[in-house]
Amino acid sequence: MASSRDKRWQQKARRDMQKRVAEIRARALENLDLAFDKLIQEQPDLYFKMEEGFEEVQQTITLVGEEVENASGLSELERLDRRIEFIEERFEDLESELLGRPRRRRRRRPNLFDFFRTAAGGGGGGGVDPGDVHTAAEAYELLGLEEGCSLTAVTRAFRQKAKELHPDARDGDRSGEPKLRKLIAAYQYLRSIYNAGDDNASAT
Q: Closest by alpha carbon to 165, among 176, 173, 157, 155?
């Protein structure tokens, strides 16, 4: 069960990074065209600087995208996530210079990998304490499930509800985090019961 869950999380992380790679590649091409139209006649030196910068971004993000396709394991995906973030920073520096606007302060992206580790009981994502949930009945209620359902159903319900509340799905809005922490606690509570061999977790 743990390995299949990890694979699903890796697929989610990979999809997220592939989307960011595609976005940067598309925007870099658009900005190259804009730089040509805007600068080639009056500021050719600046154009060639922009061209070199955006082509470098294109090349590096393409290479990272290929690595994402073949990456295995959350640690490798996390390393690539940091590389993409670095390239995004470089791209936004170039774009700000091209458009003649102040560098926008990037809102820090919620770390999806910390969330994965927390949900798996690995710590590092906000100190969720399974003791926040005291009974199986409370855990089932938080997950919107009937008592005694399978661990597969518990995992499915948790993933669906957690995805809805996670800041990545809410444009960075973190207001759902208290409820998300309760969901994680409920999931951990029930998983501990099932892992102990009780396939029909009681309400007590």
A: 176
Tokens describing residue 42: 């009056």
Q: Using alpha carbons only, how large is the chain's radius of gyration in Å? A: 22
CA distance 77 to 81: 6
Query: Mind spelling out the 3-state secondary structure of 102-123?
Result: CCCCCCCCCCHHHHHHHHCCCC
Answering whether pTM is above 0.90, one says no
Q: How far apart are CA 82 and CA 14, in angstroms?
A: 13
Q: How far is CA 44 from each of CA 36, 47, 49, 50, 67, rounded to the nearest angstrom? A: 9, 5, 9, 10, 35
Cα 33 to Cα 144: distance, rounded to the nearest angstrom: 51
- Looking at per-residue pLDDT, the higher value among 124 and 196 belongs to 196
4-39: per-residue pLDDT in tens?
666 777 788 888 889 999 999 999 999 999 999 988
The residue among 157, 69, 77 whose CA lies nearest residue 113 is 77
Cβ atoms 188, 121 nearer than 8 A = yes
Looking at this protein, which amino acid is placed at residue 178? Answer: P
Amino acid at 80: L
Q: What tokens were used for 155? A: 């995992």
SS3 state at 40: coil
H-run or E-run covering 57: helix 44-70
